[in-house]
Amino acid sequence: MVATVELVEPCLQEEFKGEKFGVTDGCEHSLAVFAATQKDIRFLTLSSFVEEKSMTADEHIRFLDMVLYQYKLEANNLIAIVCDNMETNKAISRRIDAPKIGWAAHRFNLAVKEALLKENGCKLKPVPMHELRWSGLHRMMKRYMQFHPYLHLFDRDREVDRYLPSDASQDDARRFPIVDFLPTPSEHCDIVDLLEDMNILEFSTRRLQEADLTLVTVRDIFDEVAVEFPELEGRLKMDTQIVESCDFEAGVVKIMKGQEHSLTSREKKSVSRLLCPPLESEADECPGRHITSETNSEPRPKRRRTTQEFQNAVTGRAVAREKSRSKYMDLSWIPATSVEVERLFSKMKCMLGYLRKSMSKKTLEVILFLRMNWDLVTNEITTKAVRNAREEDIVDEEECDVIE
Fold this sequence. Notes:
There is one protein chain. Helix content is about 50%, strand content about 10%. The protein has about 400 residues and is of the alpha/beta class. The protein has 2 domains: about 1-105 and about 335-404, Nucleotidyltransferase, domain 5 (2-Layer Sandwich), CATH 3.30.420.40; about 105-240, no CATH class. Strands 3-2-1-4-5 form a 5-stranded mixed beta sheet, sandwiched between helices. Helix 2 (about 55-70) packs across helix 3 (about 85-95) and helix 5 crosses helix 6 (about 185-205).
């Protein structure tokens, strides 16, 4: 496997050559680094931090520099880093002078949990609640709706559990009759209304975790959620406190919406690294940009166009003209969330299970590297890797014989 990795790494170096890129990472006792370019998102490395002192911003930057050097990536081509909203990541962004794009799903979950769920709390929680997510409350509401058609069977159930364990607490629910816990008609209406709100928020959360998510889509989702839930507007607006590089994110959104003319001076400065090279801008220039009288002298079509066809033609000219005037590169490849990192750890758990605990760090990294970049492994690379590994084994055996 190691021999295969040594042959795949040059393929990644060639793919990254001359490309603008962004870096995504995720830190939960381990640091996974992905590189996102206009071509694809690639897994680079995985490193574990055993000691707490190795989790500082300086250690992260030193590790990132080592990874960039290994894959021959130039730091001046780094567009942004995509990571969660930890203070360490914010410090990294400031020190390497690269904008930080926070996880949209993480930000949304915090906003929903802090602003909305505090008003609709529940003391009894049969579904475990995650510290950063609120999906447990949504599952609890759905479970209630599944049980509701049968709750009338317990309207007269005043008995308590007769077989309680000796260590049961005084406020144990089994000490009270079920009828005491049945919601009133008014409470049932509140639960139904809350579940409808939860369905909207659940849809938004799932959309924020999709791989093709862009920053402009995130802004559209946040704006629509703010319309339905005004209490979340302050936490989802563009310049809220949790956003580290609000000028960069706002600039990218405006560019993707075709609103470059509305960029402020600070936004223009933050997105200056997204400008197309002069030669590329001239090569991509649309022929319809410079319209002269010769364009109007074209022969009239044999069939008169319908009103809709005429409108589409006029709109097409406007779109082509707006596209040709854009000074910035296509930004749809910039990830709005580091969902690849979360999926990496999920895949690691599914693929290896408890075996990963008995593996060395190097073996685990090699397996994940080949699994995530398997499309680069060809028959030629596999054959060459096997041949190189055999040659190394022969050399090692000869060295052992000489020593003996």
